[in-house]
């Protein structure tokens, strides 16, 4: 019944677009964002990332309209509730709210989302009839679905390895701050960092935060044994994280701005912060904390800087629509409705150019240091290009293009040089390339690491498995031979006479009775040969039996 109502609404929309009375369209452009503000099909569980994208979309439009001299853009956000049914309902609401008589550019630019490929393809079945474009995350062969490449987190991994190289670390403890909702992104960075470090012959000791929860009543000395003096933490550290060890060097890796958080930390450890140097939208954190979607004070501390890549993807999608409509307006064609196919072609060309430029664009990371009793101090920037990584120290001249991939640089600040320590010896318990998948979804990135085996244990295991395999093969051959022998029976010589066979029932003809004797002797056989007809029948009955 629900499907009939949905298709009925689709037919009504199409009829209104084709047969309805034309109304005058607004002078501003409209964009629809389909995202999961709620995480469940019942639309009761609030999504932290969904609220972040909702507030970011509204803020981005305000910023654009305040500085735009051409056309104002309005964005409407619709909740998909993380389901196909919710996505279909959201798409229909978007089409109705945009005025079904004004679904062509420049009045209606298109749709951003939904988040998943399944939902996007389901919605596309509705919107493709009206030739409405979508900007989506995953590639698709369907018309009017345009992929905007999602920014990779590999630049963070390459930047971390460059800093580790300059610190001369041979091993480190890896800690990932896993949230219930955003664990995929953090675990994906941790997995890539682990694999890249192993490829460079570094020892990675993966620490499990669950062990700390089980040992809350233990003393600090016991907790300190779980960490080395070199720690890499991915994401925002918890409040008590730096109390679990002393006199260690901790490298915190973040996609957002953690300056204020780390400046308030009082610890004896040396903290290095490596974070994305791009500016965060001003006022976004405050808007998220005070969003209308939260009840009471539920929005406090809900802002997560590790989800800013999603905000940047949304910002790029909006910017592509704006750039495409600006190209049309420059040709003075933005007053009348455009042909839908022409608008999709323009949008596709802008997207292709943007994807190519984004792959070649360098990424910049800020490197800061904090010592006991001091605030964060800027050391320089890590520039990650397609085939190289370079550090520009604060005192270094920007015009110096020399690559410092050899790890030697005379301009290294004293604060950084004092914490450089070259390790001696090797550690046990390092992570290996073996990984176990916890669960797979569209992002398929959550893994746990397995402890390393030494050479003797490895060859012992190989020998045991090989021995068991050979033994099973031999037993199988013997079993086949025994079965074959029993089926075939004993082999008889060709010159042995039929008279040595066991007793057989003979059919001597319909006019004869069955013989009463169970065995015949050689003499009786000789007597039977006198009658040629009876001898032939006997031979025939032997063969038939």
From TrEMBL:
Residues 55-214 form the Receptor ligand binding region domain. This is Receptor ligand binding region domain-containing protein. Residues 503-514 have a biased composition (Basic and acidic residues). GO terms for cellular component: membrane. The lineage of its organism: Eukaryota, Metazoa, Ecdysozoa, Arthropoda, Hexapoda. The keyword Transmembrane helix applies. Keywords: Membrane, Signal, Transmembrane, Transmembrane helix. Residues 535-545 have a biased composition (Polar residues). Residues 516-526 have a biased composition (Low complexity).
């Amino acid at each position: 019944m629900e499907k009939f109502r949905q298709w009925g609404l689709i037919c009504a929309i199409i009829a209104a677009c084709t047969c309805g009375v034309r109304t005058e369209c607004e002078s501003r452009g409209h964009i629809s964002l389909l995202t999961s503000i709620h995480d469940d099909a019942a639309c009761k569980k609030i999504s932290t990332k969904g609220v972040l994208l909702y507030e970011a979309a509204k803020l981005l439009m305000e910023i654009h309209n305040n500085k735009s001299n051409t056309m104002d853009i309005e964005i409407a956000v619709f909740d998909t509730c993380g389901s196909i049914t919710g996505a279909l309902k959201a798409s229909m609401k978007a089409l109705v709210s945009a005025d079904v008589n004004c679904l062509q550019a420049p009045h209606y630019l298109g749709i951003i989302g939904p988040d998943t490929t399944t939902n996007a393809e389901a919605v596309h079945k509705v919107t493709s009839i009206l030739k409405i474009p979508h900007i989506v995350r995953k590639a698709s062969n369907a018309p009017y679905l345009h992929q905007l490449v999602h920014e990779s987190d590999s630049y963070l991994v390459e930047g971390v390895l460059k800093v580790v190289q300059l610190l001369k670390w041979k091993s480190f403890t890896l800690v990932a701050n896993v949230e219930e909702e955003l664990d995929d992104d953090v675990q994906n960075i941790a997995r890539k960092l682990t694999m890249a470090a192993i490829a460079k012959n570094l020892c990675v000791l993966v620490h499990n935060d669950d062990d700390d929860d089980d040992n809350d009543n233990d003393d600090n000395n016991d907790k300190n044994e779980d960490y080395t003096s070199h720690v890499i933490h991915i994401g925002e550290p918890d409040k008590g994280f730096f109390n679990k060890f002393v006199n260690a060097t901790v490298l915190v890796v973040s996609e957002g701005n953690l300056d204020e958080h780390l400046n308030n930390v009082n610890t004896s450890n040396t903290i290095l912060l490596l974070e994305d140097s791009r500016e965060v939208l001003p006022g976004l954190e405050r808007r998220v904390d005070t969003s209308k979607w939260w009840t009471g004070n539920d929005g406090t501390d809900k802002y997560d800087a590790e989800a800013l890549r999603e905000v940047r993807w949304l910002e790029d999608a909006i910017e592509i629509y704006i750039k495409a409509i600006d190209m049309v307006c420059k040709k003075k064609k933005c007053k009348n409705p455009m042909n839908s196919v022409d608008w999709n072609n323009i949008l596709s060309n802008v997207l292709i150019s943007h994807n190519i430029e984004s792959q070649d664009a360098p990424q910049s990371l800020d490197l800061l240091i904090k010592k006991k009793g001091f605030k964060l101090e800027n050391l320089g920037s890590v520039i990650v290009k397609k085939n190289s990584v370079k550090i520009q120290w604060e005192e270094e001249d920007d015009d110096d293009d020399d690559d410092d991939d050899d790890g030697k640089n005379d301009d290294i600040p004293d604060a950084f040089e004092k914490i450089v320590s070259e390790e001696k010896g090797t550690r046990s318990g390092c992570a290996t390339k073996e990984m176990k998948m916890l669960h797979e979804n569209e992002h398929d990135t959550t893994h746990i690491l397995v402890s390393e085996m030494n050479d003797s244990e490895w060859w012992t295991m190989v020998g045991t498995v090989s021995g068991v395999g050979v033994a099973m093969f031999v037993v199988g051959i013997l079993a086949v031979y025994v079965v074959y022998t029993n089926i075939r029976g004993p082999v008889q010589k060709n010159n042995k006479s039929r008279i040595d066979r066991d007793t057989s029932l003979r059919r001597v003809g319909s006019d004869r009775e069955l013989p009463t004797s169970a065995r015949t002797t050689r003499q009786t056989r000789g007597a039977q040969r006198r009658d040629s007809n009876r001898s032939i029948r006997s031979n025939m009955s032997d063969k038939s039996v």
